[in-house]
Amino acid sequence: KHGINAEYGGAPPGGYGHPSGPPGGYGGPGYNPQQYRQPAPGPDLAQIFQSVDKDRSGYISANELQSALSNGTWQPFNPETVRLMISMFDKDGNGTINYQEFGNLWKYINDWQNTFRYYDRDNSGSIDQNELQTAVTSFGYRLSPRFYNLVSRKFDRDGSKRLTF
């Protein structure tokens, strides 16, 4: 066998089902933007939006978003990650997000954070390779140990063999 499926694994027997999964609806493969139409309830989203919109333009730029995000390590988010987050929710294509788009992004981030916490079985604040494998398998993918080693090497920030949100 050659190619990515041979090297990293392949579809589970019986295909890619939609098993029950964690909060936020990540029980199956694929991103569904329809899930992110309404801002998540909770903190005063308008107040948060205004605090991030430093130039009071009514739009949040990638630089403003990067300044506002915290990943728990006191290190800034990767600029490419921030640009990708903006582009995922920038429905009018102007390179920024307005209040409604920000609400959708807020929900998306919170859903992923809840998913992360769901699979952080030991409540360590990070996910080890076994927890990552459990999460990815529950999404309907069966991947090789080599794949998980590659992910760990790529995203492990401190050499602990654990991934943080």
Report on this model:
This protein has 165 residues and is mainly alpha-helical. It contains 7 helices and 4 strands. It has helices at residues 4-8, 45-52, 62-68, 79-89, 99-119, 129-138, 145-155; strands at 9-10, 126-128, 142-143, 162-164. The strands form 2 sheets. The protein has a two-stranded antiparallel sheet with strand order 1-3. The chain has a two-stranded antiparallel sheet with strand order 2-4. The protein is elongated, with a radius of gyration of 18 Å. It starts with a helix and ends with a strand. Mean pLDDT is 77; it is low at 1-22 and 26-31.
Task: Please give a handful of descriptors for the protein shown.
165 residues, two-stranded antiparallel sheet, 7 helices, disordered N terminus
Uncertain parts? 1-22, 26-31
Beta percentage is 5-15%
Helical segment count: 7
Which H/E pattern describes the elements?
A: HEHHHHEHEHE
Globally, the shape reads elongated
Quick summary:
With 165 residues, the protein is mostly helical. It is built from seven helices and four strands; from the N terminus they run H-E-H-H-H-H-E-H-E-H-E.
Write the layout of secondary structure elements.
Elements: H1 4-8, E1 9-10, H2 45-52, H3 62-68, H4 79-89, H5 99-119, E2 126-128, H6 129-138, E3 142-143, H7 145-155, E4 162-164
Antiparallel strand pairs: 1-3, 2-4
Helix pairs in contact: 3-4, 4-5
